[in-house]
Amino acid sequence: MEQMDKIVNNSHLTFKNVLLETGFEYDGEEVVKTKTALFCIETEDGKITAVTPNDPHINAIDAKGWLMLPAFKDMHAHLDKMLYGLPWQAVSSKRKTVKDQIAYEQKMIPEWLKTSVERAEKLIGFLQSNGTHYIRSHFNIDPTSGFDSLKHLETALKNKEKTAGAELVAFPQHGIFYTDTAPLLKEVVKMDIDFIGGVDPYSIDGSIEKPMDLITQLAIDHNKGIDIHLHEVGETGVKTIGYLIDKTKENPGLRGKTFVSHAFALGHLPPLETERMAARLAEAGVGIVTSVPFGNTIMPIPLLRKHGVEVLVGNDNIQDHWSTFGPGHMLQKAKLIAALYGYSSEWALSRTLAFATRYVLPLDDKGNQQWPKAGHDANLVFLEASCSAEAVARVSPVRSLVHKGNIVF
């Protein structure tokens, strides 16, 4: 946008010719179009302070009629150990199990750490270029990494603090007891992090109860959230989810702060059992974080949402030794959801945007304008699109990003 590079550090910004959604147009009961109009937007000290009728003649940043939406949130990433920024490397077929990957990481992490600050910053920049301003990032905590993955990631985030936000998950990728990680986990939880993680407790550590008891107790004692990786399908996957649900119900302070990433077991249950698990997750306030897999595993996202389960979405792998297919683009993830579950109508596509923004939407389900309003955080993305439905369906080009009132580009 014109003038953006000149006023990026200003605490007060005014935008003109901003396209906003204002309501739905109906044919009978069917939404057939999203209404829009041009507005002026003012921000100050990281907040939206005014939304007023458009005045194209004022001295302001010209948004050129681009659609303004809430900036995107990637709720599952590994900024500390992506291969992004290194020469291209596809996934090796020699590493078939999680334990194979652990052995590979133990060999490679010392080398990766040498450039991890620079590469984390590059990866954040790539996510920002696609409209993401906020990231939940896991970081390895294990005997090979020690605290270095965290320290390097903190340095990268400090260098990006004006233009990107993050929350951090201590992730014992190599198991808690499979490798001697429990002492490190007990120390890292005292640091400035947000969540305690875990991975496949039965297949890696040989027990559901022992690692899960430690994770939940640390979270309770230090007022952290929980976000575990669970790739296991079948009985052990279901039992692990059930065990975490029970722990959360026993400790109400964990409600709304406890998540299962991947949770592939939910994609392999009979319909009635899936319904039951979705109801239990909702009752306990346990959320699911997914990268939206497809193929052998299709997650029951519509059913989870029907029951009120918070479903967060992230890219997970962008370019790493686990997978190379993460697009690094939350709109592409939203489009994938729409395609997988048949959300093709104007109304359904507009609702699917919620998976990219963590449920901040310009219009409510009935078409009432609810964003942006004075007092909302000035986290904004501008796209070359006519409405959010088109943005999702076509993965419309991102033209500008604003984080807490700071213009990123």
Report what the structure shows:
By secondary structure, this protein is of the alpha/beta class. The chain has two domains: 4-65 and 358-407, Urease, subunit C, domain 1 (Roll); 73-328, Metal-dependent hydrolases (TIM Barrel, Alpha-Beta Barrel), CATH 3.20.20.140. 33% of the residues lie in helices and 24% in strands. The chain has helices at residues 98-112, 116-129, 148-159, 182-188, 201-205, 209-222, 234-250, 271-284, 301-306, 330-341, 346-352, 354-357, 388-394, and strands spanning 12-27, 30-44, 47-53, 61-62, 67-70, 72-77, 132-140, 165-171, 195-196, 225-230, 258-262, 286-290, 311-313, 380-383, 398-403, 406-407. It has an eight-stranded parallel β-sheet with strand order 6-7-8-9-10-11-12-13. Strands 3-2-1-4 form a four-stranded mixed β-sheet, with no helix packed on it. Strand 1 and strand 2 (30-44) form a beta hairpin. Residues 219-409 form the Amidohydrolase domain. Pfam families: Amidohydro_3. InterPro entries: Amidohydro_3, Metal-dep_hydrolase_composite, Metal_Hydrolase, Metallo-hydrolase_Enzymes.
CATH architectural designation of the largest domain: Alpha-Beta Barrel
Radius of gyration from CA coordinates: 22 Å
Average predicted local confidence, pLDDT:
95
CATH superfamily membership of the largest domain, which one?
A: Metal-dependent hydrolases
Q: By helix and strand content, what is the structural category?
A: alpha/beta
Query: What percentage of residues falls in helices of 4 or more residues?
Result: 25-40%
Low-confidence segments, given as residue ranges, are: 2-8
